[in-house]
Each structure stands twice: as C-alpha cells, then as structure tokens.
Specification:
2 domains, mainly beta, four-stranded antiparallel beta sheet, 1 helix, Methylamine Dehydrogenase, Chain H
Length: 475
C-alpha cells in the first residue's frame, strides 16, 4: 500500500499551451507540485490525459484513504500536538485550584469563584480577594459558589457564609469594599440563611437569593446608604401556599415573567412576581404524586431550562420533564430498558438547546443525550472503551455552545470534549478529547471539568475541580 499522509488531493487543468500538467498534492505538513512535460496535444488527447489524471488521483486517494482516516482522527485526542491549554493555577496567581464559577463583567474583567477566594483577572495578573478577620470590609468567606453582575454593574458574590456586594474603591489602587449581608437572628429583615446557592435578577431588576434555608427578595431602601431589607419566602407546614421546600437549587424567570423555583426535596414552585406581596404571596407547587402520571417525576430539581419556543424543561434526579403550563401537567422522559430510543439515564444534570433547536441532556452515568423533539427520539453518546472517538466519560457536568456553534462538554473524569458532527448522514459524529497528560504541560490541567465560559474575545475558560483554570483558544 502506498502510505502517504494526505489531507486533500486535487489537480489543476491541463494547460497544453504551457506544455505541462500541474498536479497539486496538499499534505498536512508540506506542499508538493509535480510537473509533467508533454508535447502539444489536440482536444481529444487532452481529454484522455484528464481521464488518466483523474484515475491516478482516484487511485491514490483510495490507497491513502485508510491512512487519511487515521491521520484525521489521530489528532482528536487533544494531547501531544500543537493544541495548547494555558494552565492558570497557584503558580500563576490563582488562589485555589477548584473553580466553581466564572464571569466576565461589563468592563471585560474575568472573575473566578474558587474554594479559597475570589479572583479577578485583568489579562495580565490576578488580584485575589479573601476573608480577612481583621478587616470587616473584606469578603465574608473564601468559598465562592456564585458570582453575578446586575443591571447596574454591581457585582454580587455568593459564599457559603453570606452574600457580598463589591463596591469599587474611589482610589483605584485599593481593593473594593465588600458589603456583607448575613443572617441576624435579631433582625427579621436580614438574609434568611448564609449558605448562598443561587443569585438571580429578574427583568424588573429585582435580585433573588436562593439559600439552604429559603428564598430571599432583596428590597433596596430609598436611602441608598441604609442596608436593604430581605423579604423571606420559606416553607410553612400550615400554609399550603407557601414555598414547598427551603433548600433552593435553581431560580429561573420565564418569558412571561413568572419565577420558577427548583427545590431539593420539595419539587418545583411557580411564583408570579408581578402579583407578589410581602403578605399573601402564593406559590403553586408541582410535586411528584404517585397516583398522578402527569405530576412532576421527582421532587429533587437540579435544573430548569426554557427553550426557544417557550417550553419549560425540568431536570430531576429521576427524569426529564416537559412542562405544559396551560394544562399544568408534565410529560416524563425517563430511561426505559426496553426502548432504545428513550433517555438512557434518568439522573439529569444539565439541559441545553443549541442554536439549531436541538435539545442536549447531560446525565450522571448515561453520558450525553440528544433529543429530537419532532421524532421523540433520544440519540445516546456514551463512553465506549473500544472507540477512542466516543464521549470520554459518562458523567456530564456542563454543556456549552461557543459563538461559532461548537458544542463543548465538561465531564467528571474524562476532561473536555468537543462534539464534531458527521460530514454525512451515514457516519457517527466524533468527540475530540482534551484531557490531562502528565508529561504534557500544555494539556488540560485536570480531567474534572466543572465550568466552561467563552469571553468576549472568543477565548474559552475551563474551570476544573482540583486543577485550577485553563485558558484555551479553540481557533
């Protein structure tokens, strides 16, 4: 067999008046031009030569097809080639190697919440903000779980011990002031709980804080120097219209302005914020009812997502749910062993709709599922040890689409994956793996990928659990 590494094969027309034929062979690493001299030909002879050349190129392509396939896919491991991840960890100034959340603010600064401090990156250096017992204006706690920039440009930081608002210092050389909002047993208007799980701003500019013990609505005072008040929404066993459960995992506002609250044990709550009052506010509960097949499939809600058409999807510990809000019923999508087109794992961690309208479901143990809603068919993408181009791991933490339409998947043990659609309908798509290689300092720093974020310049930032931060130019 003629072994040659070919990326593309093509020939330019026969130029009889120039007395040569040019055959272009495009290689991965070099360009070869073959000049074949000949005497002037008539039109029929020219066409014959074209046929000969076409046969030559076709034969070469066939002989090289296996090597071309190997060449094409040998570059899909993400390690050991020109692909470069810039590792950003303790040596580069990052405060801690577990990154929980990533945000780029309206000024272009990158912010990273870690297990040990808040980090600000200006493109050159890191500035670390931590709790200082001697400074009441420092961060309230070092474990940062959420970062949010509101419509006014204010930065809010959620920690396991309180909410913080960062106020820039008039002297640019000094650190910003951190205003703390924490629970105070002697103040009923203080935050209900210090463990901040989520921060969300609705379209009217109201800030909602989800905690381990209730939902909070932040109400600013007319006197801006006075601290805001927090309106608490908590479960009251004697009030069926109260919040169904106090552990808040997710907050989402739909296109009609309705707030949806996902709880860890109390199902889903619907709250129409336009109608809410401090007293008399009502929550509509959607919980699992064993006697009602149209009820929510499970009371532990991990994710809430609204697609482009306005349909609400709920990810739970036991299935994906499609919410029909007019009929107040849920359609369940769960694993059915006797149905190969069903969701292949019922523990749903992440939900994402790409720009083409395809729904992607990340699961714990079942890998990635692509849902064709018209055909009602789930296509499964799982790790296959015998296929190096399959998904690298079956626990999918995160799904992200970049500005060019590239789909990126963060996994628990398999690093970062890029989904590459098949070029024809008859073949399977492939996954490009970006994994840690101990001997390659330019590889991904850690295979546990928790967060993916694309900045304004198109650079991807990959947050890992234990390996710090990675900056990657996908181009």
């Amino acid at each position: 067999m003629f072994h040659i590494r070919v990326a593309m094969l093509h020939f330019v027309d026969v130029y009889a008046e120039k007395r040569f034929v040019i055959v272009w062979l495009y290689f991965i690493d070099r360009l070869v031009i073959i000049l074949i001299s000949f005497i002037a030909l008539n039109r029929a002879e020219t066409m014959s030569l074209k046929v000969i050349l076409i046969a030559f190129t076709t034969s070469l392509s066939l002989n090289c097809s296996q090597d071309l396939h190997a060449q094409k896919h040998s570059s899909l491991t993400g390690t050991g080639q020109s692909i470069r991840f810039e590792r950003i960890s303790l040596e580069q100034g990052l405060s801690q190697s577990t990154v929980y959340c990533i945000l780029q603010d309206s000024k272009g600064f990158m912010w990273f919440g870690t297990e040990d401090g808040l980090n600000k990156y200006d493109g050159y250096t890191f500035t670390v903000y931590k709790h200082d017992p001697e400074s009441p204006k420092s961060l309230s706690n070092n474990e940062v779980r959420s970062i949010y920039e509101d419509q006014s440009g204010a930065l809010w930081v959620g920690t396991v011990d309180g909410l913080n608002k960062l106020v820039p210092n008039e002297n640019e050389g000094l650190s910003p002031t951190s205003i703390h909002y924490k629970t105070n047993p002697n103040n009923p208007n203080s935050l209900s709980n210090n463990a901040i799980m989520s921060i969300y701003e609705d379209r009217s500019g109201v800030l909602w804080i989800g905690t381990e013990d209730g939902l909070n609505k932040l109400v600013p005072r007319k006197n801006q120097e006075a601290p805001p008040t927090f309106v608490h929404y908590k479960n009251d066993p004697d009030d069926p219209n109260s919040l169904s459960h106090n552990v808040i995992r997710s907050i989402y506002e739909d296109q009609s302005g309705v707030l949806w609250i996902g709880t860890w044990g109390g199902g889903l709550n619907r709250f129409e914020t336009r109608l809410n009052r401090r007293d008399g506010s009502t929550f509509t509960h959607y919980k699992r009812d064993p006697d009602n097949s149209n009820s929510l499939s499970h009371n532990m809600v991990r994710s809430i997502y609204q697609d482009q058409s306005g349909v609400l999807w709920i990810g739970t510990e036991d299935g994906l749910n499609k919410c029909d809000r007019k009929k107040t019923k849920f359609t369940h999508y769960k694993n059915a062993p006797d149905n190969p087109n069903s969701l292949n794992n019922s523990v749903v961690w992440s939900i994402f709709e790409d720009r083409s309208g395809m729904l992607w479901i990340g699961t714990w143990g079942g890998g990635l599922n692509r849902f064709d809603r018209k055909q009602k068919i789930f296509t499964h993408f799982k790790h296959n040890p015998t296929n190096p181009y399959s998904l690298s791991d079956n626990v999918v933490w995160s799904i992200y689409e970049d500005r060019s339409g590239g789909l990126w998947i963060g996994t628990r043990k398999g690093g970062l994956n890029k989904f590459v659609p098949s070029e024809n309908d008859g073949s399977s798509p492939i996954f490009i793996h970006y994994k840690n290689a101990p001997d390659d300092p330019n590889s991904l720093s850690n295979n546990n990928v928790r967060s993916i974020y694309e900045d304004h310049s198109g650079m991807l930032w990959i947050g890992t659990h234990g390996g710090g931060l990675n900056r990657f130019d996908p181009e």
